[in-house]
Specification:
It is found in: Nucleus; Chromosome. Belongs to the peptidase M24 family. SPT16 subfamily. It is built from 5 helices and 11 strands; from the N terminus they run αβββββαααββββββα. By secondary structure, it is of the alpha+beta class. It folds into 3 domains: 12-115, Creatine Amidinohydrolase, CATH 3.90.230.10; 133-160; 207-330, FACT complex subunit Spt16p/Cdc68p (PH-domain like, Roll). A 5-stranded antiparallel β-sheet has the order 2-1-3-4-5. The chain has a 3-stranded antiparallel β-sheet with strand order 6-7-8, with helices on one face. Strand 3 and strand 4 form a beta hairpin.
Length: 359
Amino acid sequence: AAIGALKQGQKLNTVFKTVAATLNSKKEGLSSHMPKNVGFAIGIEYRDAAFVLNAKNERLLEPGMVFNVAVGLQNLKDDKKGDYALMVADTVVVPKEGESPMVYTQSCKKAFKSISYKLQDEEQEDEEEDEDELLIREAELQTGSRRSRHAKSASEIAETTAEIEKRKKHQEELARRMLEEGKARLGEAKSSDPSKKVGKEKTLDEYVAYESPEAYPASLKPRQIYVDMQNESILLPINGVPVPFHISAVKNVGKIEEGDNSYIRINFHFPASGNINNRNKADAPKFPDPDKDFIKELTFRSANSDNINESVRRIRELRRRFVSQLQEESKPEVQVQQESLILDRSATRKPYLNDVAIR
């Protein structure tokens, strides 16, 4: 009756009412043992809560809907067997108008032995398990199979232990080989050309701003700070004489405004007290002779704040470029050498790149 009630355009509560009426026709009051619903729709979720076959759902059935139709009865009484319950379920597809419903579970077994099971009390189950265990022990003692089974387990344990030891030795051998290969690669890196070594640190005397005063820029003006971006240097007027400093010697730069004057302060790298190799910055150079005298900072004053601001900006920009270059050189070489490209001049159509923009 429930499957037959699944028709296009019918309300979902019609299925529930049809089942209740059919049960009451078999026996008066039998529908009172029904659960609150007789199934649900199967969709994206296993149980679609919006399409439950109960007495209140007034949604309409549409072709192609799949329902788990489950008609059950509970709290039934029998004089011989006592209380019991039963449920019968099928997976049904709502048909189009004029067609019969498609039952997916029609080919499943329906014999009582295949679909029924009996629940036992816990005490009864424990007693049956104890009896079964006693029977098994008696059979093992008579046949001696219990001792042989233990002997087999011991042999399996011994075999497993041997495999573990073998695996452990193999892992130690692999670790030893990897260590030797690493030492060999490290030795090759140390013996290679120092000039091509990745991340090679330079000492301060390896940076040269200018070979001679004749190499100073032609646009250099007296008593002014000049930032030479091309040679990575700054020229500072000291007692009226331009003195060049490579940007590697500069630690940072700052400016101060006091009244009508502007001050620029340039801090330099110098050997720290105590441990000279304990540098705060990774890009600071090494000092070949830390016992010599070094300039810690220089301060210049100017009434023209625009010149000071421009000098600070250019020094910081040059400093960023230099640090970025050092970081690139410290990275391992991952680029692959590409062969020279050969242009095919015989082609009638010139090669070009599509959708390429330069900013």
